[in-house]
Amino acid sequence: MARHGGRGWHGKLVGAALGVTLLATGASVWTAQAGTADAPKPKASASATPGNDGKRVETTIAHSSDAGPRGVNITIDDGPDPTWTPQVLDLLKQYGVKATFCMVGTQAQAHPDLVKKVVAAGHRLCDHTVSHNTSMDKASQAYQSQQILDAEAMITKASGGVRPMYYRAPGGAFTPYSRELAASRGMRPLGWNVDSKDFERPGTDAIVATVEKELHNGPTVLFHDAGGNRSQTLEALRRLLPWFKAQGHTFGFPIR
């Protein structure tokens, strides 16, 4: 999972995230994703209510689809955004597609009406931390806990009580600790198989070509509905959603 650079709009959030000082943990993204290291059992803070139904889920990073071998999981990151999220929702509705929205806590807090619309449309919620710090795997466990649990609380409150079902580390910066913490809250760590590269705005044709070329890697596809002009993402989805169906794919959610 590649890290995305140059996300200036998130950089301001990182600096404001409760003034927590980053400390190196030494856990690489690859080690965390491979699930090769054992994690200490984290303690949940009182700042967030238990995730989902309170039942622990697997700590391994989910990539598969609950729709089976021909399933495709559409995942939408970094919102909600008042300009782009409603348009993404309209497009998904047009094609009868359900998606997983990985929300930044501060964005959810600022736009609770959009969080509720996402839930009302039958989509699922995912915790994408408070500040979208792509160096979280270099941070202290206290910082990781604050980022995950506070975002969980923000999203849950904004949704009217619906808790996120997944946790996606910004830029794939998982650690054994963050995976264990999320799983203990009922949020399955969520990866991706295909990075559409839409965040870089390479052009609609390039986004479409990337997804079509790399879908053989697996069913979970990464798009964005915030962080800048997402018109290319919208046009790419407009072309890709019917293409998936024409190729015999069905749409599902990541496994839990």
UniProtKB/TrEMBL annotation:
InterPro entries: Glyco_hydro/deAcase_b/a-brl, NODB_dom, Polysacc_deacetylase_ArnD. Residues 34-56 are annotated as: Disordered. Residues 36-49 have a biased composition (Low complexity). GO terms for molecular function: hydrolase activity. Gene3D superfamilies: Glycoside hydrolase/deacetylase. PROSITE patterns: NODB. It comes from the Bacteria. This is Hydrolase. It comes from Streptomyces xanthochromogenes.
